[in-house]
Amino acid sequence: PRAPGGMGDVPEPCPQAPLAVLSKVELRVSCKHLLDRDTLNKSDPCVLLLMQSQGQWMEVDRSEVIKSNLNPVFAKIFTVDYYFEEVQKLRFEVYDSHGQAGVGTHDDDFLGGTECTVGQIVAQKRVTKPLFLKYGKFAGKSTITIISEEISGNNGYVELAFRAKKLDDKDLFSKSDPFLEIYRIDDDRSEQLVYRTEVVKNNLSPIWEPFKVSLNSLCSCEEKRKLRCVVWDYDSRGKHDFIGEFFTTFEEMQKAMGENKVQWDCMNPKYKIKKRNYKNSGVVVLLDLKIHRVYSFLDYIMGGCQIHFTVAIDFTASNGDPRNSCSLHYINPYQPNEYLKALVAVGEICQDYDSDKKFSALGFGARIPPKYEVSHDFAINFNPDNDECEGIQGVVESYQSCLPKIQLYGPTNVAPIISKVARVAADEERTKEASQYFILLILTDGVVTDMADTREAIVRASYLPMSIIIVGVGNADFTDMQILDGDDGVLRSPKGEPVLRDIVQFVPFREFKNVSGAATGFC
Q1: 157-292 with 305-511: one CATH topology?
Q2: Rounded alpha-carbon distances, angstroms, from residue 181 to 189, 220, 267, 269, 382
Q3: Buried-most residue among 21, 38, 137, 148 (CB within 10 A)?
Q4: What is the pTM of this model?
Q5: Where is the C2 domain (predicted)?
């Protein structure tokens, strides 16, 4: 979320930087008649989603691998930002995956690709296109179908935990290898795959791993929408055996909250007709259901939340010696350095939303007194019990007082400060009132050393009432910051978990300082 603001009383709109109208779009992908690249089995397809950025194709995300299937329906849901006034080019590439080696990019692994724009998919809602090999050659009769759904509002997500009992045994020499699929039934009676669990081997009473899905994906945020749940016996050649199915709604699922459990008979319609004493093909139990509502920055503001700002300043050696006029931290008695300019410009916007006008002010990457050990989250007023300063002017004064006392060092570790603010936000959320929203303003000169830890910290923070604004100071390479922003795709933790909501906004100060507050994108 981005906080609106201006640097004067009535900021002038900037014609060079119009405010983008943004919404989120979910894309579901399936293919038909894929080429068979494998000798003994069928191809094991995986889809890569690429987006064009500055003339280059960049991988945004990829689907799961579906074993031995020429007509795959992928469970993976791709989420992309949609700016209706921009032409956003997408490319879908289908590859035959090879086990541990992953998805190759060799010509013999390539099953075909196609290009389109986000706008085309959104306008048509369902697009089916032929797949092409290199040099425009058709990939046989292969097609790819992309279904889009605009996310209207974000009502959060649900965590579900299923198990089954006494499922039918479909295997001759061992027990069934069951997995569960959940489908949403849309108004036109078509079915959209919502989730596919992992396979539990050789077990007629499997317990599947708990999983999270958005309420938008599960039921279009309509509690009475019908859902179809199907249990299969996994087959490595792709010919899965049908065990049974049941129908339910999210409304019915909610009975499983707390200590309660909900269960359904898993039915095979053919057996029901043929077998006189047929009862079921097993029972599926919903062990637990947790609903997590997701609130936007605006929801918190409109709900009367107080905004609490924390400023974090990069004191690593890459900024240059403060005694040198080339340093971004240069102590100049006649004019503010780059960090002070950025602090005042952005801080004055933020200050409007903070009722008590007190800012927590932290530094990172410096050796600090008395022992001159490196710290990645120290109070720049050197008062660990109260790191708050009175307004932006108080932060400026603490910064100027702190600079001569510290030694610029490194590395550029950002995760500790994100985690520190996140802990305070988490404590606040545990109170019933949850009356504060936390914004962390990070001023830095560029490359992040602890990128993996920072990504993990941001994913964790995305579940909390918290946003992060990163302002890039100077002319360094800000590639890391753009990755953290997530505008070219969904930011993920090192383990692949996506952010719950987009909480990071990156702005290079060299661009920011030349436009008015209305055009900075803090909204």
Answers
A1: no
A2: 17, 17, 14, 17, 56
A3: 148
A4: 0.63
A5: 3-131, 138-265
Q: Which fold has domain 23-151?
A: Immunoglobulin-like (2.60.40)
Residue 328: count of CB within 10 angstroms of its CB:
23
Q: Which of 76, 90, 80 is nearest to 24 (CA)?
A: 80
CA-to-CA distance for 212 and 158, rounded, in angstroms? 6
Question: 3-state DSSP call for residue 414?
Answer: coil
Phi and psi, residue 109, nearest 5°: -95, -15
Q: Which of 30, 25, 150, 125 is nearest to 80 (CA)?
A: 25
Distance CA 469, CA 3 (A): 10
Residue 103 contacts residue 97 (beta carbons within 8 Å): yes
Parallel/antiparallel/unpaired status of strands 306-314 and 358-364: parallel
Q: What is the pLDDT of residues 168-203, one digit of tens each?
A: 998 778 899 999 999 999 998 999 999 999 999 999
Instruction: Quote the CATH superfamily of domain 305-511.
Output: von Willebrand factor, type A domain (3.40.50.410)
Query: What is the C-alpha to C-alpha distance for residues 136 and 115, in angstroms, rounded to an integer?
Result: 12
Q: Are 249 and 267 in contact (CB under 8 A)?
A: no
Residue 411 preceded by cis peptide, ω within 30 = yes
295: left (phi over 0), alpha (psi -120 to 50) or beta: beta
In terms of Cα–Cα distance, which of 244, 113, 252, 93 is closest to 179?
A: 244
Using CA atoms, how far residue 286 sits from 136, 204, 219, 224, 267, in Å, is 49, 16, 17, 17, 16
For 27, phi and psi rounded to 5 degrees? -120, 130
> Is residue 486 within 8 Å of residue 468, measured between CB atoms?
no
Fold that domain 157-292 belongs to in CATH: Immunoglobulin-like (2.60.40)
* Domain layout of the chain by residue ranges: 23-151, 157-292, 305-511
Count the Cβ atoms, other than its own, within 10 Å of residue 302.
10
Please state the φ and ψ torsions of residue 21, each to the nearest 5 degrees.
-95, 115
For residue 342, give the nearest of 309, 314, 321 by alpha carbon.
314
Distance CA 198, CA 211 (A): 10
pLDDT in tens, 365-411: 999 999 999 999 999 999 989 999 998 899 999 999 999 999 999 89
